[in-house]
Amino acid sequence: MRIIREFKIRAKDFIHAGEGSMEIRNALKSLNLDAELVRRICICAYEAEMNVVIHGGDGTISMALDDTGVVIEVTDDGPGIDDINLALKEGYTTAGVEAQQMGFGAGMGLPNMVRNSDFFKIESEKDNGTYLLMCFKFDK
Ligand SMILES: Nc1ncnc2c1ncn2[C@@H]1O[C@H](COP(=O)(O)OP(=O)(O)OP(=O)(O)O)[C@@H](O)[C@H]1O
Ligand SMILES: [Mg+2]
Questions:
Q1: Ligand 2 centre and the CA of 54: distance in Å?
Q2: Which of 22, 37, 42, 103 is the most exposed place for a label (fewest CB within 10 A)?
Q3: Against a cut of 0.90, is the pTM above it?
Q4: Angle 5-2-19 from CA coordinates, rounded to 5°
């Protein structure tokens, strides 16, 4: 599997927030993939990137693909997640007032990533950053 794209994500950088997932969208659009698949990947990439900006630390988002599908990995060195099961619940959020005023904080990002990916893995520990792996298959 070859890495196609990797982008840095800066914590709290709302000016550049979303640029990594935008680049991934552009890369996928040039590949002639199924539109519904691209839509699912873009939702997941965007939600994951925004979580790093809002809740995480500095990090990266990367996309790799081969003949079988697309893999998105997102890491950050932020505060991590204490209770992952709680974070995965619809409506659960720790977003502050500032993020809520920008329209974030519905607590739907992680549930949407689970729903829209074919395989989802999250690894996180309090004070030890967060790692997300999401896979998307070409043929199901
Ligand atoms: N990268 C991260 N680092 C630390 N905490 C995170 C990270 N990603 C998610 N979380 C925690 O998990 C919670 C749920 O995330 P989720 O994306 O589902 O909702 P949200 O970001 O709060 O709101 P929304 O995504 O709907 O705007 C967050 O409020 C935060 O507490
Ligand atoms: Mg979110």
A1: 8
A2: 103
A3: yes
A4: 10
Nearest CA to ligand 1 atom 22: 93
Please give the distance, rounded to the nearest whole angstrom, from the Cα atom of residue 69 to the centre of ligand 2.
24
CB of 52 closer than 6 angstroms to any ligand 1 atom: yes
- H or E element at residue 111: helix 109-116
Distance from C-alpha of 112 to C-alpha of 33, rounded to nearest angstrom: 21
Tokens 């030890």 found at: 128
53 lines ligand 1 (CB under 6 A): no
Gap between the Cα atoms of 68 and 52, Å rounded: 27
pLDDT digits (tens, 9 = 90+) for 110-137: 999 999 999 999 999 999 999 999 999 9
pLDDT in tens, 61-107: 999 999 999 999 999 999 999 999 999 999 999 999 999 999 999 99
Quick one: which of 11, 135, 12, 126 has its CA closest to 64?
135
Q: 95: which DSSP letter?
A: -
Q: State how far the Cα of 97 lies from the Cα of 59, in Å rounded to an integer.
A: 23
Ligand nearest to the CA of 92: 1
